[in-house]
Amino acid sequence: MAAAALAALGRAAALLGGAQRLLRAGGSAERGLCSAVSQEQRPKRPLTAYFRFLREHQPAFRQKNPDMSNMELVKKLAGAWRELPASQKQVYEEARKTDWQKYQQQLAAYKAQLTPAQAAALREERRKRLAKRRSSRAKRELTLLGKPKRPRSGFNIFVSENFRESEGISAAAKLKRLYDTWQKLSSSQKQPYLQLAEDDKVRYENEMKSWEAKMVELGREDLIRSTRQERPKKQAAESTKKAATAKGSSQEKKAKLKVKKSEE
Fold first, then answer.
1. Strand runs (DSSP E) across 24-137, as ranges?
2. Around Cβ 54, how many Cβ atoms within 10 Å?
3. How many CB atoms lie within 10 A of CB 203?
4. At a CB cut-off of 8 Å and minimum separation 6, what does 207 contact?
5. Residue, of 8 and 119, whose pLDDT is higher
6. R_g of the chain, CA atoms, integer Å
7. Average pLDDT of 247-263?
8. Average pLDDT of 61-78?
9. Mean pLDDT, range 161-174, rounded to an integer
10. Helix (DSSP H) and strand (DSSP E) numbers for the chain
11. Which of 23, 28, 69, 147 places its Cα 20 to 30 Å from the Cα of 15?
12. How many Å is the maximal CA-CA distance in the chain?
């Protein structure tokens, strides 16, 4: 039950994030893909029924609740959508279906005019985008599950303590200056930060043990460090075993053929 609730919470967070982006972007459903040409020409994926409702009613809800944050506004709109009769939801769904048919035709025409190189570039961009999306989703899930923050290094602690006072116009300039300063520190000057880093490692290990025990209770052994480390080894062992079995079978077949020929 707890695992299901956490999974549902993760999906809700993703939905809320998408809704907030929609509100900020003024209703844009999807960005273009890789090249400048494709960004301008690629047809935009049509909005879902829910996001159509969101875009249509957001101005009125915002006018009635001017001090409400985007997150709170989205929750209020989501509640209004849930209470909407099925017959009224169907209106938005029919509009989505109509736009989806147009989108499919436009997308087919768009793909037909791409060169092989452009098509390959778009596929690679899509692969990277999906990988990034999966990574972001996994990070959000771990945050919702309360995974402890990784330990900081001595340099990280030094930066956090001195960043505000550091000279530099941009964050990158400040980091570069702090890095140069860190490199010039003596061992004795670095020691307090290194000790704090060691203490943070102890904190992290203790918190991770408690967190992993909780994950086992929730049936999420896939998030345990030992399980994640052993999985590649297990896969490699299984592959080796299959290869050995296949080789043995091949040798056995060859031996049988030799015996059969000798008998003839």
1. none
2. 24
3. 14
4. 148
5. 119
6. 28
7. 59
8. 90
9. 84
10. 10, 0
11. 147
12. 95
C-alpha to C-alpha distance for 218 and 3, rounded to whole angstroms? 5
Provide the 3-class DSSP secondary structure of residue 199: helix
- For residue 144, count CB atoms less than 10 angstroms from its CB and return exposed for 0-12, middle for 13-18, buried for 19 or more: middle
Look at residue 1 in the predicted model and tell me its pLDDT.
43
Mean per-residue pLDDT for 47-53?
94
Mean pLDDT, rounded, of the chain: 81
Mean pLDDT across 92-115: 93
170's tokens: 């941009």
Contact indicator for 144, 6 with CB cutoff of 8 Å: yes
Q: How far apart are CA 29 and CA 21, in angstroms?
A: 9
Mean pLDDT lowest among 167-181, 208-222, 247-261 = 247-261
Structure tokens at 93: 């769904």
Q: Within 10 Å of residue 208's Cβ, how many Cβ atoms?
A: 17
